[in-house]
């Protein structure tokens, strides 16, 4: 019998260090898989504009809103986070 598995963690025993660590990571960091969305401004250097940054923040707020609790979105990160961090006084 050939068993096909696409989840690499299933190759480890249920109580192995790898599987128990994965459960802790999933609980503490709202999941272990990332989902990436690429938003192109459509203009040369458009990602540097205030309008683009505001749009990204608006999309993030929308994704994190109570309307999307069923999607289990644990955390969002965006280019705007890095720009703000680099420009902190």
Describe it for me?
The chain is mainly α. The protein has two domains: 1-33, no CATH class; 34-89, no CATH class. 39% of the residues lie in helices and 0% in strands. It has three helices and no strands. The chain has helices at residues 17-28, 50-64, 79-86. The longest helix is centred in the middle third of the chain and has 15 residues, at 50-64. The protein is elongated, with a radius of gyration of 19 Å. The model has no long low-confidence stretch (mean pLDDT 83).
Using only CA atoms, what is the Rg? 19 Å
Shape, per Cα inertia axes: elongated
β-strand percent reads: under 5%
For the record, the count of structural domains works out to 2
DSSP helix count?
A: 3
**String of helices and strands:** HHH
Q: Quick check: average pLDDT? A: 83
Provide the low-confidence segments as ranges.
none
What composes the largest sheet?
none
Query: What structural class do you assign from the helix and strand content?
Result: mainly alpha
The overall strand count is: 0
As a percent range, the share of helical residues equals 25-40%
Quick synopsis:
This protein has 89 residues and is mostly helical. It is built from three helices and no strands.
Q: Which features characterize this protein?
A:
89 residues; mainly alpha; 2 domains; 39% helix; elongated
């Amino acid at each position: 019998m050939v068993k096909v598995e696409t989840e690499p963690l299933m190759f480890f025993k249920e109580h192995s260090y790898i599987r128990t660590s994965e459960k802790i990571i999933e609980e503490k960091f709202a999941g272990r898989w990332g989902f990436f969305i690429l938003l192109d401004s459509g203009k040369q250097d458009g990602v540097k504009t205030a309008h683009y940054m505001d749009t990204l923040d608006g999309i993030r707020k929308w994704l994190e809103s109570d309307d999307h609790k069923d999607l289990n979105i644990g955390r969002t990160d965006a280019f705007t986070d890095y720009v703000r961090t680099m420009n902190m006084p």
